[in-house]
Amino acid sequence: MGKTILRSEVKIRHKEEIKELENNLSQDLKLDKENTTDIVKYVARLADLKGADYVNILEMKSRLIITDFFIIIGAKNTRLTASLEDEIKARLKPLGISPLHTSGTTDANWILVDYDDFVIHIFTEEFRQFYDLERLWKDSKIVEWEKL
What is the rounded average pLDDT of the residues 121-147? Predict the structure, then answer.
């Protein structure tokens, strides 16, 4: 019985820690449609909190006319890529931010979510390494973001 209580306490503490981290997701960020830089940092924090193995933000303003940022996310498996896509959409919707287009959800090895000002690429780790967008856009500035 002692082990059962301990496990329950650990689960409760873990849930409380996650709730606290979620409350801090927007710390020091101004989340509105006009502040794209803070929105992409928020997405990076969210992906990190929800279990992404890899998160990188590339500034594309001087490189492309179609978008300002690429957010590149790597995850262990297709279940996690799909979950990350759902969570990001759900968190941005109350901010009045909806994607223009989403593709790749069928096989979920590379999900692309286009929000116009930024594009999110959610890869399984194998696909992320194969396509290596950072190498293709190596001259792009990397946007620093603070992990929680």
Answer: 94
Structure tokens at 97: 């931010």
Backbone φ/ψ region at 66: left (φ over 0), alpha (ψ -120 to 50), beta = alpha
The set of residues, in sequence order, having a beta carbon less than 8 Å from that of 57 and lying 6+ positions away, is: 40, 41, 44, 69, 70, 71, 72, 142, 143, 145
Q: Domain of residue 54: give its range.
A: 2-142
What CATH number is associated with residue 75?
3.30.460.10
**Rounded alpha-carbon distances, angstroms, from residue 133 to 51, 70, 74, 120:** 21, 9, 12, 12
Q: How many domains does the chain have?
A: 1
Residue 63 has what pLDDT? 85
More confident residue, 123 or 11: 123
Query: 2-6, 50-54, 78-82, 92-96: lowest mean pLDDT where?
Result: 2-6
